[in-house]
Design brief:
The complex is a heterodimer of chains A (296) and B (408). Chain A is mainly alpha-helical and 296 residues long. Chain A contains twelve helices and two strands. A two-stranded antiparallel ribbon of chain A has the order 1-2. Chain A starts with a helix and ends in a 6-residue tail after the last helix. Chain B has 13 helices and twelve strands. The chains are: A mainly alpha (296), B alpha/beta (408).
Chain lengths: 296, 408
């Protein structure tokens, strides 16, 4: 029984990681309608930025977060304005552009690090909470709490603030939103910046857990895309609970079936959900089709 | 008369041209193409392997070269199988390389050696581990270093001769968990380990496979933990190895001994886990230069030469194996007196030196598939933030002892 609860806890904490990485991606996916292939690499850039702040400037990674996230917001806004905005009416070109950014970010970090793997000193990641024989890593608990907090804060922002309402309006219908006087371009800028900042938060909080390599972003992004589609396009609670579901499925199937098959199992469930409910578990029905419609 | 003179003149001119051409080719250095990743995420070890080659070449050139010619190393950057072919094409066609050496990525070695065969060039492999490279029977492929099976054999022998006695357990009472990354590399080693342990009478309580890019490996650790093994052995890469060790620490999984294969003995693992946690963990890997001079004659000279040229300690032990591999190639060229593929192959077939003749402790004797049968990895242990050689016995410095196998 103790093992069962340990797997349950590890699944929930893994789900927290998936949720944290997916929320920003889902926001961009849902609002700007861009499949941002570079989102994993933005997480990677944030991880290296945090590593730099901690190792060379002596800043605690959890404090570095407050430096890295705003920087990533500015970075994301700049990418949106300079690279993606000019391609606004070329959805396919935008996808290619984000793929180009992926290669650019990866290779830039490769050139700078020569591929050396780096890790923060063990002191940041060695705290373990132990209760009644159940064990949980302290840094993973922080990630889970952050994902939960961010999900609630983002829901509040989208429901109760004017920029949030503008984002929701653009999610529902870009043209109607424009007719209502919403500055769609500025909403894109804000959303892309916000999505990038959330990737920055994820990167900073994940730095104490993983060994950094220029390719680490790719490890997160496959799961994140699955979470976004499973949870529902543009839905913050969808990304949050989708992440938890994928985390739990992965943990239980890894332990009770076979660790080598765990990804295959959650992809089977992912495909099944797509067949039964294409809008995802918590997405607005029909939202998945909006991106395919000609919009101006 | 005029005709006779003319034909004599022609013959003389031809002979002169031929002798000039021979003299020109002899004056040219022997160019050796090193196929490795020199850019991208794998470049760190590619560079390190090339440093080993360069040290052996410098050493030979200081003695006047080989067969009257100096040696020159040219780099061919290849991180993927297609790049391996392109690098060989360029180095053979454009740069006129007469030999190829490589490659610590087996998949690259596979295609690059095949491409080298089209130019009738020897592919002298020093660092690829996949067993099937020699099984192909390519007439130009010769491997001077250890391969996957050697790692499995040494890990089983070290458990039997070193760890079991240290744990005061009979091998037949020993419970072993074998963990491996799920590509052909980790899987083939794990399968052989299982066979060897079972032959020795040890109880293999489980074999676990994981993806080396997985972002969570708690399930793998909980499975192993529930089997309560005495020894946990892992084959993988740096990121998954570090994540597994971190998860073991978080989950309080403390087998009596931990052994890692192929990675885990560099600063990257030290960075990730810290000296305190690593204390006592053993690693089966390429020989390190700290071993005794009786086991690896020239190891300390190699270390001094490395520090002198690169102003730092070796980044990874792969370079010393590459250095020794290059020494063997140079000896084969000297014995052949020529650079042609057939003559080098014939000379290599005759090479016969007992173990402990090179800095790595290797000897040289190729089997009929041209795999060196006298090249083996060694075992090191983390002690106070450094790795020290602890197996085989005659490689161990007199002041070194096995420490703290049991986890705290």
């Amino acid at each position: 029984m103790e093992t069962f609860f340990n797997i349950l806890i590890s699944g929930i904490l893994l789900g927290g990681i998936y949720s944290l990485v997916s929320i920003g991606l889902n926001l961009i996916f849902g609002v700007v309608r861009i499949v941002n292939f570079a989102q994993g690499e933005i997480v990677m850039l944030a991880m290296y930025a945090t590593y730099f702040c901690t190792t060379y400037l002596g800043i605690n990674p959890y404090i570095a977060l407050f430096l890295v996230a705003p920087l990533m917001f500015l970075f994301g806004a700049a990418v949106q304005r300079i690279v993606l905005q000019p391609l606004q009416n070329e959805p396919m070109m935008q996808i290619f552009a984000t793929f180009g950014l992926l290669i650019l970010f990866e290779n830039s970090v490769l050139a700078l690090t020569r591929g050396e793997a780096h890790s923060l000193s063990g002191a940041y990641s060695s705290m373990v909470i132990s209760l009644f024989g159940l064990k949980a890593s302290g840094v993973r608990i922080v990630v889970f709490l952050a994902a939960t907090g961010i999900a609630f804060a983002l829901m509040f922002f989208l429901q109760n603030t004017m920029p949030g309402k503008a984002i929701r309006a653009v999610i529902q219908d870009r043209q109607s939103a424009r007719l209502m006087g919403i500055n769609v371009e500025r909403t894109y800028l804000l959303t892309f910046g916000l999505g990038t900042a959330l990737a920055g938060v994820a990167g900073a909080l994940l730095t104490p857990i993983y060994t950094l390599s220029p390719y680490i972003g790719g490890n997160f992004i496959l799961a994140a895309f699955a979470v976004v589609v499973l949870g529902g396009l543009g839905s913050v609670p969808g990304a949050y609970f989708g992440g938890l579901i994928v985390g739990l499925i992965e943990s239980f199937s890894g332990y009770y079936v076979d660790p080598a098959l765990k990804q295959a199992i959650w992809f089977i469930i992912f495909v099944a959900v797509l067949v039964v409910r294409p809008s995802g578990l918590m997405g607005q029905v029909g939202a998945e089709e909006v991106g395919l419609r000609e919009q101006s | 008369m005029t005709r006779k003179l003319s034909s004599r003149f022609s013959i003389a001119a031809l002979l002169f041209a031929a002798s000039m051409s021979l003299a020109w080719s002899q004056a040219q250095p022997i160019r050796i193409g090193a196929i490795n990743p020199f850019s991208g995420p794998l470049a760190l070890y590619g560079d390190e392997v090339a440093r080993g080659y360069q040290l052996a070449i410098d050493e030979a050139n200081a003695k006047g070269g080989v067969i009257g010619r100096k040696l020159e190393l040219l780099r061919g950057d290849a991180s993927s199988p297609p790049q391996g072919i392109a690098a060989v094409e360029k180095l053979a066609g454009q740069d006129k390389c007469e030999f190829f050496v490589g490659t610590y990525i087996s998949a690259v070695s596979n295609t690059a050696s095949d491409a080298a065969l089209r130019y009738n060039r020897i592919y002298w492999d020093t660092n690829a581990l996949a067993g099937d490279l020699t099984e192909r029977g390519l007439p130009n492929f010769i491997r001077s270093g250890p391969y996957a099976d050697s790692f499995a054999v040494v890990s089983a022998d070290a458990v039997n001769e070193l760890l079991a006695p240290a744990l005061k357990k009979d091998i037949k009472a020993l419970k072993v968990w074998i963990e491996h990354e799920d590509s052909i590399f980790g899987t083939s080693i794990a399968q052989l380990q299982k066979t060897l342990f079972e032959k020795m009478g040890a109880k293999v309580v489980g074999v676990g496979a994981h993806n080396f890019r997985a972002i969570d490996l708690t399930d793998s650790i909980l499975r192993a933990k529930s089997a309560e093994p005495d020894i946990w052995i892992e084959t993988g890469y740096v990121p998954d190895g570090s994540l597994l060790l971190r998860t073991m620490r978080d989950q309080g999984f403390k087998p009596q001994a931990i052994m890692m294969l192929a990675t885990g003995d560099t600063f990257e693992t030290l960075d990730a886990l810290g000296a305190k946690y690593l204390e006592g963990i053993t690693v089966v890997g390429y020989p390190h230069p700290d071993q005794t001079e009786t086991y690896g004659p020239g190891a300390s000279a190699y270390l001094a030469a490395y520090k002198d040229k690169y102003n730092r300690e070796p980044i990874a032990p792969q370079s010393m194996t590459a250095y020794v591999g290059m020494q063997m190639l140079i000896e084969a060229i000297a014995a052949a007196g020529d650079t042609s593929m057939e003559k080098i192959r014939a000379a290599a077939a005759k090479m016969d030196k007992p173990s402990k003749k090179y800095a790595t402790g290797f000897g040289v004797k190729f089997d009929d598939k041209f795999q060196n049968t006298r090249a083996f990895p060694t075992v090191v242990q983390w002690q106070s933030g450094k790795v020290v050689t602890v197996y085989p016995k005659d490689a161990v410095q007199p002041n070194v002892k096995l420490v703290n196998l049991a986890r705290e």
